[in-house]
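In the previous chapter we treated chains in isolation. Here, by contrast, the input contains two separate entities that must be folded as one system, with a combined length of 818 residues.
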Amino acid sequence: MQWFLRIILIVLANFYAPTCGATVQGSEPPRPLEPGELVANLTSNEAGAKALSLESLRGRSGTVIAVRDTSCSDSLRLSGRIAELAEDPTLSGFAFILLDVSAKVASGFRPATTEGSLQTIASPTRALARSLGATSATEVFFIDRTGTLRYRGAVDSQDAAQGPPGSPVVNWLRNAVTAVQRGDEPSVTLTDARARCALHLQPDATARVSEVSYHNRVSRVIQNKCQICHRVGGLGPMPLEKFSQVFARRSVIEYMVKSGRMPPWAADKKVGHWANDRSLSEMEKRDLLNWIGAGAPEGNPADAPLVRKFVTDWTIGLPDHVVRSEPVSIPADGAIDYVFQDLPTSFNEDKWIKAVEIRPSQSQVVHHVLAYIEDASLPPIVRMGVAGILGAGGPGALGIVFPEGTSKRLPKGARIRLEIHYQPNGTAVQDRIEVGLRFADKPGAEIINLAAYSIDFTIPPYHPRYQVRSSHRFERSGRLLFLLPHMHVRGAAFRYDLQYPDGKTVPLLDVPRYNFNWQSTYIFKTQMKVPAGAKIIATAWYDNSKANPLNPDPSKAVRSGGETTDEMMIGFFDFVEDPPASGPAPKLSPKSAANQ
Amino acid sequence: MPLPLHTPSCFPFDMVRRGLLAGVSRRVLGLSVLSGLLAAGTAAAVTSFEPGDRLPDLTYSDIEGHVGRLSGLSGLRGLVLITRDTECPVSQRYVLRIAELAKTAGARGFNFAVLDVTPHSRTEAQAAAAMLPGIVSLFDPQATLAIRLRANSTAEAFLIDRAGMLRYRGAIDDQYGFDSHRAAPRQTWLRDALFALDQGQEPKVKRTEARGCALPQYSDSK
């Protein structure tokens, strides 16, 4: 009987206490390190030589590790570029390491050599490359002085073979290093280096932390994905800048992350790749939730990342011109309809805008702002206010710098119309919006904001899922730069598809749970090429039922209109037409811009 | 949405498991099992205070450091205690409503107090209390009192009569919630409960779910 009772109790104890003091360990296959992760101290153990710790080679400001394979000419060429960076006196605080994965081990093998400011680690077994999850012999890894991976990928855009031919070269690695050197965040943290000298290594898990704690992992996730709003002076409530704050809020963090409400990013991950994607990766989500489930251990403060600094001034740089709204009084409670303001401009010529930023003075009560260009010279679709977006402001929305060589035209004498959604937060305040503009030296390719929209629909009372569809046909080929679906409080879901001239249709963006309070722009990571004759198809779904908590009156039939209680169906997009085979591009005609 | 603060500890079961595996004596094993059963039983006994329950006369500390018992805060007709987290948007939006209710209900003998569970300092709590002049602000930076009340959410109201009986518990009204924000409330549960009691009647609605933010957690309990 004793042994029987013993077995029963063992089973019960294990069943009821699976998470007591659990150590967080992943059980799925290892995957490559992601920027923002702490890189464990890697050790090189090659050819029976003395073990070499990467930490012993770290620079006081950070470390660049570049993979090299002498059998690949591109890799050798890039090694020269790394050597140049190593010799740059402005980067003297950084260590530059070549990780040589060449298959042959020369006689007199030496695990590490130094030439000038450049160190080389010989790793013919490729163990270190596997630990890092290196994908090619042209890939670089930049690790800051806290051991955090800040950038991985190609040295620059030319080596990554990205961007249209003739595009300016973007020096991703150098930009990341100098950004961190200044105390800023790299604007690009991950690029694809697989275009040349691909390695086919199965990554292992030795480079990542095995037991997740706040300091060695969660702090980095919160920094990268949450603190832009959740910090003192940020747009969101509940600052998450210290362990004590994150620990106290773990319950609401868990709920918000599990339900997909936070970070606010509504796009289905299976469709599209976005430059401004602020969602958690699957790994970040898993580590964060597992950490909470394991009791939210603090860990060792020595594993903490650098404190993230946020730009409090203009993120686009000092504007060339600022347009200001009239002050708006926001009460302490209640709900406010959209506020519209028309801001005159006084330029005596057309202006070409290369960057725009919208800044409220009381961001804590501003949910989002859309800024439109209004001018008689623009196509009807723009004059109607159904297109012609200049920029958008909202949670986590920084200023927009348009791609190199493109700009938006602000006609001489045009107005900037602001559409502002305020939300009271318990304190009456007065807000004023500033629109900062930076001008291009020369126009370049014109970005036109257009839309697939509909104004001819009526949503029946109590309808839980009413569909409206519209489309826009492209007369000329070009590139899509961003998408912005727009509906009001009954909006439930939205989708963009691209239909090619041969009828093939590909999805561009799927927002299965649209939220009026969290409208986002979606900036293509790689501009989407569109052939002439293609169509963008926008589909919107509305919930006019009682189940919609934002629905002011399910018993009403709802038409298109400008009030919040009306509805809108607009699939905005920014588009740049390809230059014609010969001659300058014609100006956009009203017909080509009309909703078709 | 708000998660309950109190969940059974896994400690007794883990101790049992280790004891079994290490071949601990039967006596110790038996004590372990017993303590586990007692802990589980204790955890199951009190999960929530519901209307009709007599609340324990709990000790509080206010933002000035004064200590007292909840009964001492009651007015002639009763006390309304509302959880508050100044970092929670729902709590922020209800500030004016609380002030308004305190003024009208206060004239009828109902005192109001807010239970500040925000993870901030006493100085910050005092600054926050200035937004609700005339309303006692209890300082609960470890949410100890909130846990003992079995509170689930911010902006959760406990209407306690003079005898210490809970008469209404839940949302102030349905204007603001974690996922909702109306121009005006449709249901005014706390106001209606106060009016009913003032008229010597039972509130029609005694219990609703407060839909504020989950309360901050300061201990290791989940």
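Residues 26-45 of chain B form the longest helix (20 residues). Chain B touches chain A through 41 residues (CB under 8 Å). Compare these points with the single-chain example from earlier in the chapter.
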